[in-house]
Task: structure prediction
Amino acid sequence: MEAKSDWQIRKSLSDRMKYMLNNQLMCDVTFHVGIDKTTIKTHKYMLASSSPVFYSMFEGPLAEKGIIEIVDIEPEYFNMILQFIYTDKITVDSFNVKNILYGSEKYMLQLLTDECNAFLASHMNVDHACLVLQTAHDFNMKDLETKVLKFIFIHGSEVLDSKDFRNLSAECLKLLLVSDQLRCEEEYIYQKMLHWGLQKCNDKSLATTDENIRECLGDLLYLIRFPIMRPQYFTEDVSCKSLLTATEKVKVYQHFNYKTTDIFPSHKRMSKIKFETGVGRRRKWKTEHTPKPEMEIHIFLFFILLLYFFLAILYIVYLMFTYE
Result:
């Protein structure tokens, strides 16, 4: 490709390098990238000076010859990685962060990894928390995973409302469902897990039947705390479906009558969120601590005893007036 006559004049180093890359001037290595084997030409010197992986690829007895195949990165993201190598500039967003991070880890581009980490840390909000969690989990970023889990536990219902929730893996969902600290009504967790199961059915081109949703949920079904749902909700919205077996439904109803089930978790989460339903009505969420069932029974018994005591006093007063 013919170059302009003034591309070197009064230009920064990064601008000159970018121009040479974009116009493929004096390139000495060719890549076939992605499934379609898109041809991308570049410079060994630039790649080797930035990445120990590329250096080993081009130098030494095991150096690769001829055209180099890269099948695990799409051309769009490989070009973005090249732009960073040549200019130290890149725009990371929620659509490309996982692919860019994969490339930076593969080629040991620590500065690029740092850019991805900074983006993820700065986007720990209700809209992107699931993306951050999934990315941190996929790339074994334990510190970030711990931080985003704490955020999700606090903002549970809002995070479950985000678009990215349906894209979480089963492993990440398990991290959420096993926790007692997830601040969300169990009925709402159930609804969102149904949506997740529907998404998986669609991904696998399965009919969206209760049986297929149950299959897609797998062991996650047994992390939903059906016994702590409101009995009326369970009757009207859960028991009428084929998601649970007849035996499982009986076990839940037995728990409602103080016989603990051994199939589903029955201990309540740390806090409870007020849950409202209704077409055209906005949901209102209010954090409130949930009393334990034992405490509720004790309070009930206390008031019964207090009532008996009051009646006894009235009876004694009655007898006193009668004998007079």
